Structure formats: C-alpha cells, structure tokens
Amino acid sequence: MKGGLIIGVIILVVIVLLGFSFLKAPSQEEFTEEVPISIEEETGIDESIPEELEEIPSPVVKEFTITASNFKFEPSNLAVNQGDIVKITLINEGGTHNIFFEEYNERTNVESAPVTQTLEFVADQLGSFAFWCEVSTHRALGMEGTLVVG
Ligand SMILES: [Cu+2]
Q: Is the pTM above the cut of 0.85?
C-alpha cells in the first residue's frame, strides 16, 4: 500500500507539473508574439496616414492682382505650381482691354476702364505660357506677360 501511495503521489506531481508547463508555455508565446506584432501594425498605420495626406494636398489658390493700362500689364510675370487654382483680379485703370491665356482658353471680356474683372482656372498644364490683351495692336504695344507653371 505505501509503495502504491508513493507511486500515486509521484504520478500526481508529474501530472500537476505537466499541466503547469502546458498552461504556461502557450500563454508566454501568445504574449511574446502579440506585443511586437501589434506595435508594428500600429506604427505602420501611423506612418501611412500622414503619407496619404501629403499625397493628396488641398488645392493651393494663387491670387494675382494685375493692373491693365495703355499698354501694359503689371505684374507681367506670374509663377504658379501645376495644379494650383489661379485667381486673377484684373483692374483696368485706363483704356479698353482684356486678358487672354491662350493655352488655357481663358479670357475676360473686353471692357473699358474703370473696371475690375476676375478670372479663375486650374493651372493643369506645365510650361511657360504667354498671356496678352486681345484688343487690336495692344499685344504688340506691350500688353503681354508670361505665366510659368512649374
Ligand atoms: Cu489692351
């Protein structure tokens, strides 16, 4: 009987130890696996969100106030970035004029001073484009300028 009890106790101890080792082993693996994975996933998401926001910038509005007179535009050199919204306020201080951006097919009506007109378009074409006044010989007299879209 004593021998049987000792064997029974040993078997119980072995079962208990085995049980502990089975319970502990998986739980440790779960912790060691989950923690680094969740950190990597979070940092990956954190990094990707600002990148996506940078790739889709809100349109930039570039406003220019141009004075038209006999026979010039001031300023006559405009520079924007491709995709910018170009807003032009044309203040005609003397004479009869308009402003025409040929490549963008954008123009104001021909009107006599004093008059203020506006024009708005998206600078979607890259390049250096002339603009000018379409009234008779005004362009040849100096009413022209350049829009650089870079
Ligand atoms: Cu003109």
A: no
Is the Cβ–Cβ distance between 89 and 63 less than 8 Å?
A: yes
Pairing of strands 61-69, 72-74: antiparallel
| Residues linked to residue 118 through DSSP beta bridges, in sequence order | 89
- Residue 91 structure tokens: 């203040």
Instruction: Name the residues around ion ligand 1, CB cutoff 5 A.
Output: 97, 133, 135, 138, 143
- Answer for the pair 33, 26: CB distance below 8 angstroms, yes or no: no
Range of the domain at 50: 1-56
How far away, in angstroms, is 60 Cα from ligand 1 center? 29
Predicted confidence band of residue 27 (pLDDT cuts 50, 70, 90)? very low
Residues 142 and 95 in one domain: yes
70 and 40 together in one domain: no
CA of 143 to the centre of ligand 1 (A): 6
